DNA sequence: TCTATATTTCCAAGATTATAGAAATATGAA
DNA sequence: TTCATATTTCTATAATCTTGGAAATATAGA
């Protein structure tokens, strides 16, 4: 993970429709959903949906699987983990920081 | 946390300069850094830096603290936690999912 | 008060992104 | 092969975002 990749990942999620798609797929689990099903649930036009799925796929946040005429998309949980690792890298100068030590650093990075 | 807020948060981080600022502040810890110090380290023009600090502050990702003539910014770890909670809400339909069960869901959401 | 330093606001130009209609492509079934 | 369904690509328009120079504002010290 590097800055460029992280920005692509974050930008992929920083959009109403794409965030909704991602969250829907996270909730759906490994099986995922076909494009048509996603479109129905979120009420998004074909072209728009396809555009956003491409963005998420390109970022590696979702996986694509073909099954007959249907294409299933599912969340890629690993990629999110990579991102989180990058964001909290070397937190607090690598010092051990206890929740009790300071309010602003309560057990999220440490 | 709701979709609108989450998008604002993600958009705040989905930009080279802002991600660099945020990561720098995460690494720096609760003390944070003054605007001038951030500008020096990242080599960003005053106006640009101020613009991005405002965005991050507005998103609640960083905290602002005045100390004499200096204004210190520091990472708000709690807000990042809120975001993560929202992203992984109801993962895998709420079912227990073991890493061993399926590759795509390896211990990140469960 | 006056001066120097720190930070923000204003502004305009350039770059990027989102949207959906229409056409193109891909797959399976008859 | 022919047809129906599923999904993607093409395209143009509209909207939003990023940048940094210059001016404005805020604070501390002399």
TrEMBL record, chains A, B:
InterPro entries: ArsR-like_HTH (IPR011991), HTH_ArsR_DNA-bd_dom (IPR001845), Metal_resp_trans_reg (IPR051011), WH-like_DNA-bd_sf (IPR036388), WH_DNA-bd_sf (IPR036390). It holds the Pfam family HTH_20. The keyword Transcription regulation applies. PROSITE patterns: HTH_ARSR_2. Residues 1-95 form the HTH arsR-type domain. The keyword Zinc does not apply. Keywords: DNA-binding, Transcription, Transcription regulation. NCBIfam families: HTH_metalloreg. This is Winged helix-turn-helix transcriptional regulator. The lineage of its organism: Bacteria, Pseudomonadati, Pseudomonadota, Betaproteobacteria, Neisseriales.
């Amino acid at each position: 993970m590097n800055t460029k990749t992280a920005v692509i990942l974050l930008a992929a999620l920083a959009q109403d429709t794409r965030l909704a798609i991602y969250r829907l797929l996270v909730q759906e689990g490994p099986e995922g959903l076909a494009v048509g099903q996603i479109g129905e649930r979120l009420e998004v036009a074909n072209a728009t949906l396809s555009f956003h799925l491409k963005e998420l796929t390109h970022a590696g946040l979702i996986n694509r699987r073909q099954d007959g005429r249907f294409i299933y998309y599912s969340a890629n949980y690993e990629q999110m983990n990579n991102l989180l690792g990058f964001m909290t890298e070397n937190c607090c100068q690598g010092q051990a920081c206890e929740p009790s030590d300071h309010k602003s650093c309560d057990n999220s990075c440490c």
